[in-house]
């Protein structure tokens, strides 16, 4: 009966120059491997590997044994496990030997429930995938998620469960997430795509831009559309009724962050209104609301009367100011004229006094012996209305004679000895 002495697996026969007795063998699935057995058998045995007959490549006889080289079939890492080698030659039951074959391969056959996941903002998605790999793989995100991968061994040593998480905090968290899976045999890439599937976000920053007694201008910022086209509707009513009026906003493309405007007219003056803006897609709608009040309508007759009164007051004020300016100007002119007249009167008096003095200083011819001019004294008295100048001789033999209208002294009497 055959007896298996030693075993060896190799892709290069030189690796088996020193045979060992281990029963564990590792090799890559891309490599063609041969099995070398030292069997003591007569006649020559047949060798089976898990019930499959192996083809003999060649055989050589040694000292008391025969070396048989068998070509193994192409094995994959899914075939890794315990193998049974059986040698028989028709005598008795033959011989059986067990070996553990670990077939190495780079990661492949990644499976998951879905590579395209529809979700919404504010959710967390658990990602679970399965991969064939030998040995154990490492997994990394190609895009930052804030979460690591957990790798667990599945039922078999060559199959692994990998798990991680993605949190969707905003619209920016949707899209493709790349995954890199590696081991010592190589790497592969895979990906997960997150698609939005939700109602649109509510309009943001809804506000009143301006309001009159018959209209109002509203504005808001468009939020994320939830992954589908969204439309806007504006509903409004007075606060004392339940009847809503509706206006639809027509636009070709609404992007996140777009500023929307709408004008509501034909409103009632001095009335409170409630407004609701709805953002809608195929999955539903969200809304934002506010209240406002229109202005009071002005009475045109009162306005005209007020305007007339304002004009009248303005005219009166203008007239008063004009009169004051005229009075001030007249006073200034009169004052300047009075000062000028005073200066002129003073100059005229001085000139008359000088002229009168010169007239009385003339001596009638023949009087030089009676009058000594250097001894004359000037006596003057000046008044605002009239001024007289008298020349008085110092000698007592000459008496004063009244002047006539021409202002000349009649000296004829003196000559006659009167």
Automatic annotation (TrEMBL):
Gene3D superfamilies recorded: Immunoglobulins
SUPFAM superfamilies: Fibronectin type III
Transmembrane region(s): 311-334
Pfam families assigned to the protein according to its UniProt record, in alphabetical order: fn3
Domain of life: Eukaryota
Ranges for domain Fibronectin type-III: 202-299
GO biological process, one term: cell-cell adhesion
UniProt xrefs under SMART domains: FN3
Protein keywords: Disulfide bond, Membrane, Transmembrane, Transmembrane helix
InterPro entries: FN3_dom, FN3_sf, Ig-like_fold
Protein's UniProt name: Fibronectin type-III domain-containing protein
Provenance organism: Mytilus galloprovincialis
